[in-house]
From TrEMBL:
Full protein name: ABC transporter permease subunit
Lipid bilayer topology: Multi-pass membrane protein
Example of a GO biological process term: transmembrane transport
Membrane spanning residue stretches: 7-24, 64-86, 98-118, 124-142, 189-210, 222-242
Pfam family, one: BPD_transp_1
Source lineage: Archaea, Methanobacteriati, Methanobacteriota, Stenosarchaea group, Halobacteria
Amino acid sequence: MDRLTRYLYTVASVITLLALWYVGGVTLPEVVPGLPETYAALVVVLTTPGPYDHMFYFHVWKTIQMLFASLVVSMIAGTLLGVALGRNETLESTLATWVYAWLAIPSLVIVFLSAIWIGFDASSGYFAIPLVITPFVGLNMWEGARNLDDDLAEMAEFFGAGRVQTFTDIVIPQLAPFLFASFRSALSIGWKITLLVEAFLLTRGVGFMFRRYFDQYDLPTMMSWLIIFVVFLIVVEYGVLAPLHERVMEWRPDAEGVRVTE
């Protein structure tokens, strides 16, 4: 499918969503916030200071700050964990059960335990969010490490490539699809957990604003905050991740066919 066709399908889906939203707002106003009301609320959010005289970008920035700091920690820890499990059978046999047990712990339980252990402040979020995300990254990278082609590494060694060159030219390119899949998975999970932390524990951020307007049963304003953050995530995906993925994987046209656990 060419780029123009994809663009037209995207535009058509957005128009369809807006039409359904408008109809839902007219027929079920107590459940679906009206489109005009949501637009008016969005204008207010973007132009008027909120709690403690903070503009919308203050809360968005605080959420982004916590989210991406947690993503960095999770990607590093999860990658190290996954590669270690995928390349060491003894370690895999020892820790595999515990990784699956870690994945089974509900995110809400981790958030509440973090609050009890650390306190009702941002430190709990910086602890809880990586704790939730890391096993998902580890699972992806574990699968990637198990699928590394050892023959390529042996061939590189035969032709005189050092360990560093083998790692950068042989190992990293093979892990690249799994790294991108891991980051996308971590981003999709991480922003939800970040909002959860802010809603329950903090007095700033997008999650806090959700809780504030939930308490007031202000659906249009809640939807406005959702729109702001969803737009940001779409910009990250199509403005950063997709072009970067395309550039990194130019040499490997069949990379889209790689099966990655998510």
